[in-house]
Design brief:
Layout lengths: L11 E5 L3 E6 L4 E7 L4 E3 L13 E4 L10 E4 L2 E4 L20 E6 L2 E8 L9 E10 L2 E10 L5 E3 L2 E7 L5 E3 L4 E5 L5 E6 L10 E2 L5 E6 L4 E6 L4 E7 L5 E6 L6 E7 L17 E3 L4 E12 L3
């Protein structure tokens, strides 16, 4: 989970299908709202909805989650990363804080691009592109990154959607292991899933705070909102083999389910274990995708 988006300039673009309406912003390449045509939110940051510096889904590029110590070592070099939000640690990469350009806009699709220069701080120089599309009751997201630096570097990608949370909301998403939350919202101990932390079968989110990474995901999840008569099936590309759940207690009307290509804090340990990060030589590319299919779920 990251901090608040800190960009003022924003072009807002609307896309729609017979089932969904979605608003996209160029600030952060983010989705600002998503709802059924009859007005039921399908993505929502709850009580923060409508705030100019909040979004309901943003891209994570060139890395997901926090980086311990704001730096990493890789192939004999040490790199520094500057804190980039209202957090002491570098978090979620740069794309969610950048100004994206519009590469294309149709009734049902927006295509965005973003370029980052290494001179802006840190070693990463890259080109990112994103496609956000609606097709019936499906929201389709595609995110790609190309390494534009002069050296090979480890990259990761992910999506950070916010979902409504009601008293009866359930989540089903298999995993083999999970990470406890350590200091500074970094991963702590890696444990087998069990009990309240095992979402292999549908269950409600616990009342206690969740801010945890899960390993061994098959790329499929289901969310049900019985009070709203809605459900959602999440299907992610095979290279998104992990997810984070962020469910704060202070704002209990939303939660985040974040498909990621790598283990949280993997970049800080890249010399020992890439943890799902992909080493991209100059000019090489990584792409991930996710589809959220919404459906009526009434008794």
């Amino acid at each position: 989970m990251g901090g608040e988006l800190g960009i003022a300039a924003d072009e807002r673009l609307r896309i729609e299908s017979e089932a969904l309406t979605v608003e996209v912003g160029t600030a952060g390449g983010a989705i600002l709202s998503a709802a059924t045509r009859d007005g039921r939110p399908v993505l929502s940051n709850g009580s923060a909805a409508g705030s100019a510096d909040r979004t309901v889904c943003f891209p994570m590029v060139p890395v997901c989650n926090r980086v311990e110590g704001n730096g990493f070592s890789f192939r004999g070099k040490t790199y520094r990363l500057a804190p980039n939000a209202n957090d002491p640690l570098y978090v979620h990469g740069d794309g969610w804080l950048g100004a994206w350009r519009v590469n294309g806009h149709e009734t049902d699709e927006v295509r965005l691009g973003f370029d980052k220069e290494a001179a802006d701080g840190g070693p990463f120089a890259y080109h990112a592109e994103q496609t956000i599309r609606v097709d019936g009751a499906r929201l389709e997201l595609r995110l790609g990154v190309t390494n534009r630096a002069a050296e090979a570097l480890p990259f990761g990608l992910g999506f950070h959607p916010y979902f409504p949370r009601t008293a009866q909301t359930t989540l089903q998403a298999m995993a083999s292991e999970w990470w406890t939350e350590g200091d500074d919202s970094l991963p702590g101990e890696r444990l087998p899933v069990s009990g309240a932390d095992d979402f292999s079968t549908a269950q409600r989110l616990p009342e206690s705070r969740l801010n945890n990474g899960f390993e061994g995901w098959d790329g499929n999840a289901r969310i049900l909102w019985p009070e709203n008569g809605l459900g959602a099936d999440v299907a992610a590309s095979s290279n998104l083999g992990r997810y984070m759940i962020y469910a704060p207690t202070e704002t209990p009307d939303f939660f985040c389910f974040e498909p990621m290509s790598h283990t949280p804090n993997a970049l800080a340990n890249a010399d020992q274990d890439l943890g799902g990060l992909r080493v991209l030589a100059p000019g090489k590319r990584l792409e991930v995708s996710m589809t959220i299919s919404f459906f009526e779920a009434r008794d």
